Amino acid sequence: MLNQGSGPTLLGVDVILVGTILVAVAAFAVIVAIYAAVTVKDPMAKRVKALNSRRDELKAGIVTGTAKKRASLVRKTDQTEKMKDTLSGMKVLQESQVAVIQQKLAHAGYRNKELAVLVIAARLVMPIILGGLGFLMIYVIDYFPEWGDFKRLGAFAALLFAGYKGPETILKNKATKRTTEIRKGLPDALDLLVICAEAGLTVDAAFNRVAKELGRAYPELGDEFALTAIELSFLTERKQAFNNLAYRVDLESVRGVVTTMVQTERYGTPLASALRVLSAEFRNERMMRAEEKAARLPAIMTIPLIMFILPVLFIVILGPAACSISDAFAAKPGR
User: Fold this and answer.
1) Which pTM was predicted?
2) Quick one: pLDDT band at residue 72, thresholds 50, 70, 90?
3) What is the spatial distance between Cα 51 and Cα 231, in angstroms, rounded to a whole number?
């Protein structure tokens, strides 16, 4: 008698069950995609709030006359100050090290320079925490009894290294991602700056207009341009605002734009023509980078093609024949 509950099988796997699971996964992915498309948030909402606070700080710094009131504008917390004093007492907090971490924080988009103390403290504390946890699990509890001495030592060393390099690696990855997004939108931003300059807008008004136009497409670049426009309006030296932009963005092209802006402000050279030349250079650079990625694509796709695409293609082509052959061999000889 035939089993009514059984379906076609391929290599001992129920085809209908696997298909049902894949359809459920696809339906869930469609629901998640629709939810992500419907609940799109404005990428500039939080940035506008941060920029407004920066504008208030610059305005207060210009209005107040004494250095004591200006010092009160620096955002510090009691916990940060205590941690800074503790690290300084342990001789592990150096000014050069703090300056490097502060610039990395600026590249990652963090405005508060006091976070550098927290990053240094995390780099000091995390190896102790992860190392102690690893020592407890590997040697005390013996959670992995099948591991040898070399494997235990390697795992313990890996935990220590991850605890020491983890905070800085996370910060570096965030800075790299942010720099890539800024690089993508820089040629378009320069084109808009050229249009604004030819229309007769001032430099700070042009930066502000470009920030509004590119805020949704490139929120990171819009954030930087909006902050530069605010600093151009409030700082006593306009050169300092451009230098701050080069400090916050780790891009050679941005430094070239800053140099052009500073020279234009100093010597009165035409801004539109200089920006047009820079925009053409950045567009050619972006096209060359895209062509380089396209040239590497065949070599990169070789391993995924062999491991994932070709086996699926063979299953689709030979699957029905394999099912028929399996059913023929499974049939009884007397039927």
Assistant:
1) 0.65
2) very low
3) 10
